[in-house]
Amino acid sequence: MRILHYIDHFKDDGGSSCFVKELALEDETILTPKVDFEERRIKKVLLKGNFLDIQDFFEKVDNEKFDIFLLHSLKFMTPEILSEMKKKDVKIGYISHDYYSICERVVLINNRNMLCSGPYGKNCIYCYLDKYPFIPITRQIRDLLFPFLSLILKRLRYYRDRKNFFDEIFTSIDKIIYPSKKSYEITDRFLKLKGKSVIINNFQKELVCLKRGKEKYPIFAFIGHSSFHKGLQTLLKAFKLLENKNIKLLLYGDVRIKNKDRRIIVKGKFRSEKINEVLKSFDVLVFPSIWPETSGRVIFEGAKCGKVIISSNLTAAKELLKGYQKLYIFENRNHLDLKSVIERVFKDWQKIDIDSKYSKFDSVEMYREKLKDLFLENQK
């Protein structure tokens, strides 16, 4: 089984990019319009406006031999490209690394830093309309104004039509693969299609766990960025209330904060090949996302190396790390509950076995075999 991969942005520090880099065989091609570093498997496709250039795309594809065209993103893709790909008698799949990319409103947080209620429940991500502060707060009034504003604002017309655009794209897709049941269930509310399956993408091909001795006090860490939905502010609020002077927090990634607390050390961004050294530097990984994060490569990396994991109850951590004894859960966006969990870990530190690791991982080969079985199931 040969796979042709597509991703909208191949970057060094992205979870999806790392996944594609490990999943693709050495002789498989990765198509992308944006790439941050040299990679011999990459073929860069030109953009024409907000979409892939169809002529350039097929010039890149025509000499490729593959059985499955696997989308890791829908950004820049067009229904016309997928329709032409179907004529090549290949299967088309989409791996939904996070559900929000195909939500009919396609957004995480509104301009008041709130998860909007939306039409499908309290946690459904709602609305780019909220980016326009002159629109009244009351949603009913916004909805009344929308038809008129969309005549003036080109951006609003784009967001209004995006759901219909995605619906057309999905008519050409044979299989949708989700990284968790949580992702499947959320998306099922607005994407009623057949051919949906869950394959947990928990393989860690290049991860090597470097030995770290047990110190008197645990070191805590956050890996991510300071965007509101990642929950860093919840963690910082909790940390501010901690009176323990021996506690230390390392912040890795694109983190931009004003910090005067000497216990908090901003380590900054790092290249993906440095993840082994990063994991060696701490004992406890905090995963405080305030939106329903449905996968989480970083928690797999931490658990594989035996780190204590502290996660918000809105993420899929309980499903993905089922049975892991060093997983602690706190109430989403509740910094007081997070504070108490951190204190509990600190108190129990001497009893925690740092050598016990989460071991329920697939290999890349096992994951690819599951993909093969999924796409060929109707041919057996």
UniProtKB/TrEMBL annotation:
- Which is an annotated Pfam family here? Glycos_transf_1
> Does Mitochondrion appear among the keywords?
no
Query: Is Cell division a UniProt keyword of this protein?
Result: no
Residue ranges of the Glycosyl transferase family domain? 214-351
**InterPro entries xrefs:** Glyco_trans_1
Extract the SUPFAM superfamilies matched here: UDP-Glycosyltransferase/glycogen phosphorylase (SSF53756)
| Alphabetically ordered keywords of this record | Transferase
Please, which domain of life does this record's source organism belong to? Bacteria
Which terms in the Gene Ontology molecular function aspect does this entry carry?
glycosyltransferase activity
Q: What is this protein called?
A: Glycosyl transferase family 1 domain-containing protein
